[in-house]
Specification:
- The chain has 353 residues and is an alpha/beta fold.
- It folds into two domains: 120 residues, Leucine Dehydrogenase, chain A, domain 1 (Rossmann fold, 3-Layer(aba) Sandwich); 206 residues, Rossmann fold.
- Helix content is 43%, strand content 17%.
- The chain is built from twelve helices and 13 strands.
- The chain has a six-stranded parallel beta sheet, with helices on both faces. It has a five-stranded mixed beta sheet with strand order 1-2-4-3-5, with helices on both faces. Strands 6-7 form a two-stranded antiparallel ribbon.
- α1 links the parallel β3 and β4.
- α2 crosses α3 and α4 packs across α5.
- The longest helix is centred in the last third of the chain and has 25 residues.
- The two termini are 33 Å apart.
- Bound molecules: nicotinamide-adenine-dinucleotide (NAD).
- The site of nicotinamide-adenine-dinucleotide has 25 residues, from α4 and α5.
Length: 353
């Protein structure tokens, strides 16, 4: 399998494979760029059907982390880890200890964190073997209380701030009272966003394939539950995708009526060209990796130390970044996605000098 000529290689600094026979660990760590700081990115556990798929995923995700941290003005580079295995049946303490040793062997060039298939419990096991793990310790909550290392409350707050910036730009309103918002997925981030929108007076429509999560939003926040497909075609001001990626495609675009798309899900556009189609239709798209950076900001402060107030202020800068993206996109006649990438590349290049 070729790595240097891989279509997603994109000048990665390091791609390292590891196998631990006794625990059964098979993992890859990719470090894309460390010019702004150590490479931070989640550790995903997934039953990839072959090594090639695992490599493609880790390369794409680690490059994405370089862009995300650069755009969020963080002293971090981009990296990612994948464990080839089934998170439902393949987890063991020995496996994550071996993964901790693998992370430790890189001496801090890569810092790991939770991702799909891993969580706080796995971070705590890795932390037995390495300091270079984020999200394992209790943290001060944004409202001053205490919480575990889960960064999703900061992600939700960043999406709320970013949604406000998008609404102000596209609809010219700063007051969210009466704003109609459709949220796809009311899990950790989507529910947090819904709570803040409710407090600001917005009207909510929600859809979730997990009935208990949907019910929680209906019962606690007075949201209106709609079907999985119905959520796209509602006559609302904002569509907030907070479930899975790839949900903006030609089919869903046909149904969508909201003039603003602002949500947490990663990789929302099924295909990069769709950003042009959204622009053509007058729909303002808040680039996913710009608006959902609250989590990585939170994790960064966990590493460097910082109060909840500092985290909150940095998360609020997501609104400034988005305003800059929206204004530049208009001035340069480009999509918001193109401008977000350009801004991230400019910051990365400045860091390399
Ligand atoms: P989560 O698993 O807690 O919540 C996702 C919710 O979406 C679940 O309730 C699930 O049942 C629901 N869902 C899945 N498929 C659906 C569908 N087809 N229609 C409706 N609902 C559906 O995850 P989360 O942590 O809230 O993350 C949400 C999204 O935001 C993910 O795409 C994640 O990658 C992204 N994200 C999360 C963070 C974070 O800090 N948690 C940070 C950045 C990006």
């Amino acid at each position: 399998m070729s790595v240097f000529s891989h279509i997603d290689f994109d000048q990665h600094e390091q791609v390292i494979y590891s196998q631990d026979k006794s625990s059964g660990l098979k993992a890859i760590i990719a470090i894309h760029d460390t010019s702004l700081g150590p490479a931070l990115g989640g550790c995903r556990m997934w039953p990839y059907s072959n090594d090639e798929l695992a490599l493609r995923d880790v390369l794409r995700l680690s490059r994405g982390m370089s862009y995300k941290s650069a755009l969020a003005n963080l002293p971090l580079g981009g990296g990612k880890a994948v464990i080839i295995g089934d998170p439902r049946s393949g987890k063991s303490e020995a496996l994550f200890q071996a993964m901790g040793d693998f992370v430790e062997s890189l001496g801090g060039r890569y810092i790991t964190a939770a991702d799909s298939g891993t969580g706080v419990a796995e971070m705590q096991i890795m932390a037995q073997r390495t300091r270079h793990v984020a999200g394992a310790d209790p943290r001060e909550a944004l409202d001053g209380g205490s919480r575990d290392g889960d960064p999703s409350p900061s992600t939700a707050y960043g999406v709320f701030v970013g949604l406000q910036a998008a609404v102000q730009h596209r609809l010219g309103r700063s007051d969210l009272n009466g704003l109609k918002v459709a949220i796809q997925g009311v899990g950790q981030v989507g529910f947090g966003l819904a709570q803040q929108l409710k407090a600001a007076g917005a009207q909510l429509w929600v859809s979730d394939i997990f009935a208990a999560n949907e019910r929680r939003a209906v019962e606690q926040l007075g949201a209106i539950a709609v079907g999985q497909h119905e959520i796209y075609g509602l006559d609302v001001d904002v569509f907030a995708p907070c479930a899975m990626g790839g949900i903006l495609n030609l089919q869903t675009l046909e149904a969508l009526r909201a003039p603003v798309i602002a949500g947490a899900a990663n990789n929302q556009l099924a295909d990069a060209q769709l950003a042009e189609e959204l622009q053509r239709r007058g729909c303002l798209y808040a680039p996913d990796y710009a608006i959902n950076a609250g989590g990585i900001i939170d994790v960064c402060y966990e590493r460097t130390g910082g109060s909840a107030a500092q985290v909150r202020a940095h998360v609020e800068s997501i609104g400034d970044t988005l305003r800059q993206i929206f204004q530049r996109a208009e001035a340069e006649g480009c999509t918001t996605s193109v401008i977000a990438d350009r801004l991230a590349q400019e910051r990365l290049h400045a860091g390399r000098r």
